[in-house]
Amino acid sequence: MKKRIIPIVYLLMFVISISTVTAEEDKNTIYEERMSLFKKTEALTQIPWYYFAAIDNFERNTLDSNEPEKVVSIDIDNELWYGIGNPGENQSIGIIEMHDGKGKDGNGDGIADPNNPEDILYTMGNILLESGPTEDDIKIGLWNFYQRDLTVQTIKNTAKVFQKFQDINLTNRDFPVATNYNYSYRSTWGDRRGFGGLRIHEGTDIFADYGTPVKSTTYGVVEMMGWNLYGGWRIGIRDIYNIYHYYAHMSGFNDNVKIGQVVQPGDVLGSVGSTGYGPPGTSGKFPPHLHYGMYKDNGVNEFSFDPYPFLRKWERMAKD
Description:
about 325 residues; 2 domains; 12 strands; 8 helices
């Protein structure tokens, strides 16, 4: 019996290994395909590729996780694409232009297909160019299209990250405190808090000694830093997945960290402290710890969610 079981176990391990490698290769392939499309559209429109990548990334991260992944996830409303009064049955450029539609032909086949990645990106580029070609013009174009400040800010931040690293496959992560120091934590999201009125705890507390390094968990842009009545010295980072990472109760910041700066996993932001629950300078009202919160933006509103499962995963990654 044992002689039969052992080969089967090895066979299963081999099949799982092959499946993992194949899935990773497929993931790399789709990133390469996207990058190729973004750069082609840059050549056609003269809009830097990282803006298309950022718009696409923003929209992909507003979708239901159960939806199948597309090469390009940008969604342009049918009425905007085909024009007012055009039912959309005819995708020819002439008919669309006759109805003042925005849909464009990006691959040279004479039609504007809202499901074709090249047509989608070229159309998006032309919509942005209606405001002009400069960075300020693109910002205006994004506002005209989305009509939402947070969306525009997130897209601009993501574009800044992609520009710096010249890559869109940025999946590394890190734990928010140095794992070679003493620390402890448990799931505290949703616990009751009383300071400033009854409220729920929107994060996970990681207890550590004063001065323990606090690190960026992700790729993103420093969007906020300074004093907060509740959080003391705190930093907020907007990442490329439409998530705002909130670090609070710090004892201070790294001198090299500034608002608008691009960060990556492992960058030291400052150190653990016990600041907050009072005016600037208040400290020591609770044991030293880092409050770490995560807020998801779905394109309509922003909401807190439990970071604990992610922290457990990133902790394992940091220690491997």
